[in-house]
């Protein structure tokens, strides 16, 4: 598996190498999985493999075609995404949905025959954010793309996509990669010390892209540690401090939903660790560097209480998605902290 460079997902690479080499490649793929897991890299490598001048089972990465795909300027490879839609649109730069106009522009381009390669590859990233109208407009193209075209949809999970879209694609679902593989890659490729690599691998939840992002932006590690300190203190804090935390998060939520979602995700990982330690499964915990503090909490908390609070965290997340008043939802949460 030369040159695909993916950490994990060898079954997916094997499958794509084999099916494209034996003429049984699909006309439409759907790569689904969590953010940072490797979907976009897999799509990039498949695009390179399909237009590579060597036409072997692996992209060569050194021919002009491979290089142009890598740099995003191959005329037969088109990459659309929310970011690209925002960059091209003047009035609405903050849309969280892929619109029908984006799909139409994509379809218009698909009708053009290849300029240089034997094939044309169309990648639609963020496909989980397609509006229903846009998704419906896409169906016909997915059903009968021109013979030279290969379509690759990328989605964070396939749950939000219309079943009619999913059923027209060959679906490759990328699952979280094992910690040891991620830690080994961080040590080999990025020269990370083994202690840091293990911690990052645990934090990454099987998403190498997330670990690499933390390496690139060490301030994110500091931010995460600072947040964990706050959450740990909240445990021992009285009602006033807890309510103040809820008020601050609710304020943040009004300007940026993602920040609060990150807080809740972090808190969930914290409580999952408490649950794991309580159940004597300490090898699987995420916050390896806080094992002692977590162990103390696990000893003081029943499994049922830990489980109940995890459920409350889920509920709070759902309430926010359902537009419940954020301060009410978060206050309710912190007041039930075990
Ligand atoms: Zn090449």
Write structural notes for this entry.
With 338 residues, the chain is of the alpha/beta class. It folds into 2 domains: 10-173, Rossmann fold (3-Layer(aba) Sandwich); 217-335, no CATH class. Helices cover 58% and strands 8% of the residues. The chain is built from 16 helices and 5 strands. The chain has a 5-stranded parallel beta sheet with strand order 2-3-4-1-5, sandwiched between helices. Helix 5 runs parallel beside helix 6. The longest helix is centred in the last third of the chain and has 22 residues, at 257-278. The chain starts with 9 loop residues before the first helix and ends with a helix. The model has no long low-confidence stretch (mean pLDDT 92). It binds zinc ion. Zinc ion binds at residues 52-54, 59-60, 63, 65-66.
Question: Which SSEs are present, and which pair or pack?
Answer:
Elements (H helix, E strand, L loop, with lengths): L9 H12 L6 E6 L5 H13 L12 H7 L6 E4 L1 H7 L11 H11 L9 E5 L7 H12 L5 E8 L6 H4 L3 E4 L5 H12 L3 H11 L3 H9 L1 H19 L2 H17 L1 H22 L12 H10 L2 H19 L4 H10 L3
Parallel strand pairs: 1-4, 1-5, 2-3, 3-4
Helix pairs in contact: 2-3, 5-6, 8-9, 9-10, 10-11, 11-13, 12-13, 12-16, 13-14, 13-15, 15-16
Bound molecules: zinc ion.
Zinc ion binds next to helix 3.
């Amino acid at each position: 598996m030369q040159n695909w460079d993916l950490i994990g997902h060898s079954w997916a690479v094997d499958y794509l190498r084999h099916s494209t080499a034996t003429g049984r490649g699909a006309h439409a793929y759907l790569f689904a999985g969590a953010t940072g897991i490797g979907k976009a890299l897999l799509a990039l490598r498949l695009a390179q493999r399909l237009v590579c001048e060597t036409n072997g089972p692996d992209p060569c990465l050194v021919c002009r075609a491979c290089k142009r795909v890598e740099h995003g300027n191959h005329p037969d490879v088109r990459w659309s995404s929310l970011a690209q839609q925002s960059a091209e649109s003047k009035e609405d730069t903050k849309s969280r949905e892929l619109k029908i106009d984006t799909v139409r522009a994509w379809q218009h381009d698909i009708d053009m025959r290849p300029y240089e390669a034997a094939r044309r590859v169309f990648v639609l990233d963020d496909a989980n954010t397609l509006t229903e109208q846009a998704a419906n407009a896409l169906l016909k193209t997915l059903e009968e793309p021109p013979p030279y075209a290969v379509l690759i949809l990328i989605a964070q999970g396939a749950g939000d996509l219309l079943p009619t879209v999913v059923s027209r694609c060959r679906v490759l679902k990328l699952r979280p990669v094992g910690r040891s593989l991620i830690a080994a890659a961080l040590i080999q490729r990025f020269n990370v010390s083994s202690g840091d690599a293990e911690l990052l691998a645990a934090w990454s939840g099987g998403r190498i892209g997330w670990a690499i992002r933390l390496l690139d932006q060490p301030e994110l590690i500091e931010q995460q540690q600072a947040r964990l300190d706050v959450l740990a203190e909240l445990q021992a804090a009285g009602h006033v401090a807890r309510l103040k935390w809820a008020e601050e998060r609710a304020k943040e939520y009004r300007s940026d939903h993602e920040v609060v979602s990150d807080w809740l995700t972090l808190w969930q990982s914290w409580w999952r660790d408490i649950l794991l330690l309580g159940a004597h499964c300490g090898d699987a915990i995420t916050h390896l560097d806080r094992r002692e503090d977590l162990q103390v909490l696990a000893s003081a908390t029943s499994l049922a209480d830990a489980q109940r609070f995890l459920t409350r965290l889920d509920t709070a997340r759902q309430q926010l998605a359902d537009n419940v008043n954020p301060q009410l939802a978060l206050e309710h949460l912190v007041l039930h902290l075990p």
